[in-house]
Amino acid sequence: MTALSSQLLPSDANTEASEADLVALVGSRLCHDLISPLGAISNGVELLAMAGGAMSPEMQLIAESVNAANARVKFFRVAFGQSSTEQRVSQNEIRNLLAEMSATGRMKYEWQAEGDQPRHFVKMAYLAMLCMETALPFGGRLVITEINGEWHLVAETRRTKPDEALWNALNGQAPEDLRPAQVQFLLLPREAALHGRHIAWEIGETEARIGF
After folding, report:
1. What pTM was computed for the model?
2. Do residues 101 and 144 make contact, with C-beta atoms less than 8 angstroms apart?
3. Cα of 207 vs its chain's centroid, Å
4. Cα(48)–Cα(157) distance, rounded to whole angstroms?
5. What is the spatial distance between Cα 124 and Cα 192, in angstroms, rounded to a whole number?
6. Which in 8, 84, 132, 174 has the greatest CB count within 10 A?
7. Any idea where the domains of the chain sit in the sequence?
8. What range(s) does the Histidine phosphotransferase ChpT C-terminal domain occupy (predicted)?
9. 5-211 adopts what CATH topology?
């Protein structure tokens, strides 16, 4: 079992905040521009199905792919987009989104945090989920809870496959060869530092945990 680790990155202020804001602006812009065409494709598939009766296997595949892409973009919009301490995300919105993602992938998500939540904490939870996915190549069950302001994400799987150098990025030790698909390992500790939170993580053979 990897030892529990935690780190609060030093925060300089204005530079960290401005860089984070720029990254979030880019994320929001990309997701905003993608949601509309994906919605148009989804509507077009529905209209074709209504006009021709039963959907063909090909049309069904297109519909499922568009729905999966649409859900993922909505997820990315929160994970990589702008957030503030004033904004909140409803419990129903989160659970509906994660249900859509669970229906089309190997991961099954259970959002057990009660009530509407501040958007910046939802953002951190989503970034943590993306981090955990990298260590779960066989899929699994991921439960997200919030108790008295403390967030816990626990994933169970047949077998984990963590990249230790990558996970050490959560302690501020980012590898030089970080790939675009791993950017969440840089963004999560940065977001945590901006909100005065510590990141703790632990990975075993069949379980992974992140808390903040």
Report:
1. 0.81
2. no
3. 18
4. 39
5. 7
6. 132
7. 5-211
8. 92-206
9. Heat Shock Protein 90 (3.30.565)
- The 10s digit of each residue's pLDDT in 169-194 is 999 888 888 888 899 999 999 999 99
Q: How far apart are CA 17 and CA 102, in angstroms?
A: 33
In this predicted model, what pLDDT tens digit does every residue of 80-95 receive, in sequence order?
988 777 899 999 999 9
Phi/psi of residue 202, nearest 5 degrees = -155, 135
Dump the DSSP string for 26-49: HHHHHHHHHHHHHHHHHHHHHHHH
Rounded-to-integer distance, Cα 206 and Cα 212, Å: 21
- The residue type of 178 is L
Six-digit token pair at 200? 């703790």
Distance of CA 162 to the CA centre of its chain: 17
CA distances from 92 to 64, 71, 89, 116 (A): 22, 14, 9, 8
27-79 per-position pLDDT tens digit? 666 766 666 666 677 777 777 777 766 667 777 777 778 788 888 989 998 99
Which residue in the block uniquely carries the two structure tokens 């069950």? 141
